[in-house]
Amino acid sequence: MHNNIELYIQALNSANCGIIITDNLQPDNPIVYCNKAFENISGYSYDEIIGHNCRFLQSQDRSQPERQYIKEAISEGKDCRVEIRNYKKNGDLFWNELFISPVKNDDGIITHFIGVQNDITDRKRAEHELREEKSSVERKIQERTKELIESESFLSSIIQTVRESLLVLDANYKVLSVNNHFLSSFKVTKEDTVGKNLFELGNHQWDIDTLRELLMKILPTNNPVIDYEVEHNFPYIGKKVMLVNAYRIEFEGQYKDRILIAIEDITEKKEIDRRKDDFLSIASHELKTPLTTIKGLVQLLQRMKPDGASEKYNETLDKVSVYVDRLNILISDLLDTSKIQSGNIELHLEPFDIDKTIRDTVDNLSVSAPSHTIELSGTTNATILGDELQISQVINNLISNAIKYSPDSNKVDVYINRVGNFVKVSVTDYGMGISSQDKAKIFERFYRAKHIQKKFPGLGIGLYISHEIIANHKGTLWVESEVGEGSTFSFTLPIMKNQ
Ligand code: ADP
Question: Which positions fall inside the PAC domain (predicted)?
Fold first, then answer.
């Protein structure tokens, strides 16, 4: 028997969980046994433990609800399991998973309690971290939702204030919302619009095949509709020109696959542009007529030079002729611009030898611009079907610009070659170059880079005309440039078939 007890005690001592036995028949229920593991968990030695009530493990942390629970279980003589904060001898907190079970004698009186304890601090910490993490995720979600709601109301206030008509459609082109500007500019009510199909609005003004096609491509391809002009006799507001832009929109977590349509009334702007163009075309016409007469008269004077006219007289007359020519070119450019603008530019298509055209143009310019050497290299031996005069005007523009915008250099390179069924002509200068913002705009009508406005004369139309001329010949004109290093303007032209 004695041996058996030794055996049991050894078993208890080798257990991983702390085990204590208290004697309930003695006052204050003292501990009468504890195993090795309990010493380890608590940090107290056997001698320091025996005789104490278990509460010493709680140190000063006495307000935990679990204590009450244990008390009740003990007084009622029931099993109980709690997780409770306890403290080691050195003051360190440990979480104790505690099982208490009463031992009764034959008369049903509780003589002992057995307490089994596990240090679950690590598990508790992991649980705690998990809880923290969860609540931080929840917090983030709440914040994000708040942000979304705020940005939505921020957006909707912008949408209501902008001076552009906006419509939001679902994937079936049904109008989901409109802004006030739309309602006031088209003189319609919300009821007329929201919930209706875009193509059935008003008198079907938006039901245009090409617009419908473009809009249908937005969702599958994400390609926006940019600057599509609709000219129409609208109900209530009459004949107007509207500029339509449309984009696919997505609002994170709320919806995707919607279409935002922005409509701008450009009727007045078009009208002003038209008047400006009319003015330009009339003014240049009116200027051209007397100038042609002046040119003729100067030629007459040159031919009827009085005998013994001084050198000075001749020089002056020649200068007048040169300036009249310059004015003539300027006015012709202006006339060309208005012709291009109204789509009235005529192409006189004839086959011509492009190498020769370029050589002639370069030779002419070399004489009039002694400051720069224009070096021509390459050959194409190609025939172009096109308007030779216009092509020579383009080369002229490019080389003149190359000279004008490289005052500190003395060289312009012109290079021609064949690329596939095209000829390619490049004009390179080593001058000021063009910034990337300007690059995007220099082919527009009347555009001139800001910093050069005062220093160099010009109207900002040469490149516009050149670009249009090359486009009319089914070629392309483009520029590559680095600020401070120079620019290369290149264009291509299709070589005539059977070449
Ligand atoms: P203009 O020379 O009369 O201003 P253009 O249409 O020929 O008009 O050119 C438009 C603008 O492009 C110029 O004002 C200038 O800013 C820029 N540009 C054109 N050619 C060059 C070049 N070779 N180097 C630098 N800038 C250029």
Answer: 80-132
